[in-house]
Design a protein that fits this description.
Layout lengths: L8 E4 L14 E5 L4 H18 L6 E2 L9 E5 L19 E5 L6 H10 L4 E2 L1 H36 L2 H6 L5
Parallel strand pairs: 3-6
Antiparallel strand pairs: 1-2, 4-5
Amino acid sequence: EKITGQKPLGLAAKKAISNFKIRQGQVIAYMVTLRGRRMYDFVDKLINIVLPRIRDFRGIPTYSFDKEGNLSLGIKEQLAFPEIKIEEVNKTHGLGITFVTTAKDTDEAKSLIRALGAVLSEEKRKKEEEKLETIQEAREKQEKKAKEIKEEKKEESAKSPAEHLDGKEES
C-alpha cells in the first residue's frame, strides 16, 4: 500500500506445499492493478527514482518485452522504493511488475516505454552478437584447417608408393 498508494489484493495458495511451509488458503502474494493517475504516478516514480537506485542498473533489458508489447520487470528488494524504511523491514521481498500496454508489438512497446523516460538496455543483444561472431570465427578456423589437411593428403597421395614406405626418394 505504501508503494502504490492503493490497497493490494491478497493472493492465497491453492495447494499446501510442506517444503515451503505453505498451507492451503494462506496469503502468499499481493497484487495491485493501477489505472489512471495512480498508474502514471507509479510509473514516473519507478522510472525516475526506483530504477536508478538499484545497484548495477544499466537500463530495462529489451528481452523483458513479450510479443504482444507487454513489459515484465523483477525487482529483488522492496528497499529501492523511498517509502520503505530500512528499520521497518524484517525480511526483504522482491516484487514483479508487469506493464500491460495497448502496443501491438515489441517495437511499439519499446518506443512507448522510452517516451515515458525509461532507458532500455541493449546489452543482451550485444552479447548475442559477440557470441555469434566468435562462433563464426571458430567455424572459419575449422574450415581453414580442414582445407590444409585435405591439401596435405593430396600431396601424400601424389607421392610414389616407395616414398610412403621409407619417406625417402629413390635414386
